Every structure is written in structure tokens, then in C-alpha cells.
Amino acid sequence: MPAMTSRRRPPSGAVDRSHDLRAGARRWARPLAVLVLLGAVGFGANALRDWLLSPSTLPVRVVRVEGAGHDVSPAQVRRIVAPMLGGGFFGVDLNAVAKALTAIPWVYRANVQRRWPDTLLIRLQPQQPFAYWGKDALLNRQGEVFKPPLSTFPKGLPSLDGPQGKESELMQHYREASTLFSADGLQVIALSEDARRAYRLWFANGIELVIGRDWDMRRMARLAAVYARVLAPRAKRIDRIDLRYPNGFAVAWKHPKTDGATAPAKE
Fold it and tell me: Exposure of 77 by Cβ count < 10 A (0-12 exposed, 13-18 middle, 19+ buried)?
């Protein structure tokens, strides 16, 4: 009787489990590989960042200053910036440097850029003074108050004074009056608005013009016309002109004997 052999076949349930395990491994292999790759990239990126931010890797060796101007020297700028270069070429905080430089009274704006491989380029926009503001400040051409040391104040600027927040308005009034009266040879050197919102201005020949609360360019234009025809020949004797009259103005004459006292008179 021939011997009979037979291979035992695994139960159908075991075959299914093995197949599921292999399929599961294949399903997780790709995401795991991606995670490992991302981890490696992240680690490498951190290492690269630390290397780039290390001051010893790429130090800032040159600080180039442009537009320093008369009252701000490149040496002064470099002294301010020097403590802020510790982070190296990539680590230096450009915004912090710009903020520190605009704290200099004569600097209006600072632009700071990196220039590969070791240079910090600083472009400064200096303040452009337009007028004196009060006793201890200047007004720039943007109508903003700034306070440099008194010893650095330029000479020959007009003088403006008024309540806080009225800077731009007074600048505009000064420009209007200067344009109007310059045609008659009158130079406006000062303009003020007091706490009661009343205006006064002064000409270079010493005449004071009392305007009052109503800044009316039509009335000032009429005064300019009369001044040119009637008052200009006697300008040295005029102490003050008062525009606070609805239908005209008053002229206060210098007293001929006291040379400075005034004797009001209406025109």
C-alpha cells in the first residue's frame, strides 16, 4: 500500500493576519520615512540657523553711513550701532538699529540694510528744520516738533508758536502770509497763536500785526494793498497794526520823542 503524504495548509485565518500585517507595515512605512526626513531637515535647519547666527561665522565688519549730515557724524552713528552688532551679519536686528538712530534728534528717518558678506548699510534722512517752535524746539518740514540741543539750532528761521497740535496749521498760515506780504517787501519773521486762539505776526521791520481769532486772508490782502500805497513810506514810524476791526484797521504809531511808545490812531 503506497505511503501517502500530505502538506498541512495553514488555516485560512492565519493567512489573512499575515497579509494584514504586511499591508499595515507598507501603509506606515512611507509616513514614517517622511517624518524621519522632516526631522532630519529640521535638525539640519536649526543647526544651519545656529551656525549662521553665530557672530563668529559672519561678523559685521563694515558699517557704511550715508546721509549723516552736518549735525550727525558717521562716528556718532557707529558708536550707537556698535553694541548692537553682536548677533553677526544675520543676527543683527535691523529694526532695533533704525529705532536707535531715529532717537538722534537731527535724524528724521533711518534705513538699515545688510550688504553681503559683512556690511551694514545705513542711510539717514536728516531733519529739515522749517521754523523755531516755542523757545526750545524746532519744527520740521513735515510739521513735526523735534528738540535738538539749542547749540545746534540754525540761524535765520522764522519763529512759530502755538498750542500743541496746531503746528501744521500755523505753518500753513505762515506760508500764506509770507507769500501775500512779500510782494510789498514785508518779511514775516514770526507768527503766534495764543491760548485764546488769537493770532499775531511780526515783520522784519519791527511792525506787529494783531489779527485776532479770525484768520481772514481777504482782510490781510486789503491791508497789504493799503500798506503799499499809504503806509510803506512811513513804515519806520509804525509800531503796530490792529486788524480786529470789521471795516478797517488801526495803526499805532511810535511816539516821536520816546521812540518806542505807541500812540494809537485809526486809518
Answer: buried
Grid cell digits, residue 80: 550707537
Q: What are the distances in angstroms from CA 216 to CA 38, 89, 145, 181, 245?
A: 73, 58, 26, 14, 12
Calculate ∠ Cα 29-33-36, nearest 5°: 140
Please write the tens of the pLDDT for every residue from 84-138: 999 899 999 999 999 999 999 999 999 999 999 999 999 999 999 999 999 999 9
| Whole-angstrom distance, CA of residue 256 vs CA of residue 253 | 9
Strand 188-193 relative to strand 248-254: parallel, antiparallel, unpaired? unpaired
pTM for this prediction: 0.76
Would you tell me the crossing angle of helices 94-102 and 74-81 to the nearest 10 degrees?
Answer: 130
H or E segment and range at residue 108: strand 107-115
Distance of alpha carbon 97 from alpha carbon 62, whole angstroms: 15
